[in-house]
């Protein structure tokens, strides 16, 4: 099959792996793959095992369900319990545990909760169910946000007043900037997500990459209880020209999802780390245009503006969320139903290490619940629910 089989060619993969071994001369390399689909591919194709042990691939916050805050989930559960509301949500969200329950459990108790494939489907549901307030749970990154934007525009144009969206869309670049500043994590390079990059292009990372300053004295990622966060600094630090600024940003490569894509991207990163070169490159050029998807960007700008976002495991990250612009506030479920702000407090489930997994601090087997009581059929945390979740990938492909 074109664009699949050639990217799974074992001989080519082995050749690139041996090139990586030849290039890997430093004591260690720590590379984060940001996308949950990358994590699954790395596990599925045994890519970690093909690399020398001095190269560590750690999984980052690339699963939308996993980074959604506890506060958001609790508000969603509260909405589901209201008699006049029909909650429409992506299927992954149904099984995420929060406060000792889940949307699926609430549905079994009589709540009106329906799984949908898209935001558009939720608008169509609202057209049919005029007797109910249809609330769409709009979660995800730049990949799903354009769908929400189009749905909200459609509802406004067609005057579908019983539709609203509870929005928790997040943008990846500010989260990467925050992670790159965390001294404890010590990330030296990023495998950038292919899907998100198809929307924002290489261009979408440039502004944030320019603003990254690796402050060695101030950690910038919250601790799950979420205190500090990325604050775009703008400008250039004193006594440093733009070149100096650029040198501080970790190298990053947009990567496809096949084994050859990932290995080629890792090779580029290892070479860049050796040469201390802050590359920002696109390996996935068969899908990702340098400028991204301009139509999708346009609709995002029309409907959303930037706001502060709360991420599970990372806490508050400035300017990392998309919030509905004023003309669309009538379709904002948080306003319509007077929902509480998400807040920073995280539910402490005994033994659960989801926040650390999301942040890339630990691999899932370090969680005491992994495989023993936390399994895909009975998840104790969000990272075991979605196929993009790190714990789920480790469970399925170990
Ligand atoms: Fe959370 Fe389960 Fe993963 Fe532990 S194994 S971190 S409880 S999802």
The largest sheet, given as strand count, sense and whether it forms a barrel, is: 6 strands, mixed
Low-confidence blocks of residues = 214-247
Total E-strand runs: 11
SSE topology string: HEHHEHHEHEHEHEHEHHHEHEHEEHHH
Count of DSSP H/I helices: 17
Rounded radius of gyration (Å): 21 Å
Terminal residue distance: 27 Å
Global structural class: alpha/beta
Helical residues, percent: 25-40%
Overall shape: it is globular
Arrangement of strands in the largest sheet? 4-3-5-6-11-10
| Bound ligand species | iron/sulfur cluster
Mean pLDDT: 88
Measured by DSSP, the beta-strand proportion falls in: 15-25%
Describe the structure.
- The protein is α/β, with parallel strands linked by helices.
- The chain has 17 helices and 11 strands.
- The strands form 2 sheets. Strands 4-3-5-6-11-10 form a 6-stranded mixed sheet, sandwiched between helices. A 5-stranded parallel sheet has the order 2-1-7-8-9.
- Strand 10 (304-311) and strand 11 form a beta hairpin.
- Helix 1 runs parallel beside helix 13 (259-274), helix 2 (36-44) packs parallel to helix 17 (390-397) and helix 8 crosses helix 14.
- It starts with 9 loop residues before the first helix and ends with a helix.
- 52% of the residues are buried.
- Residues 214-247 have low confidence and may be disordered.
- Iron/sulfur cluster is lined by residues 352-354, 357, 364, 367, 369-370, 374, 380-381, 383-384, 391.
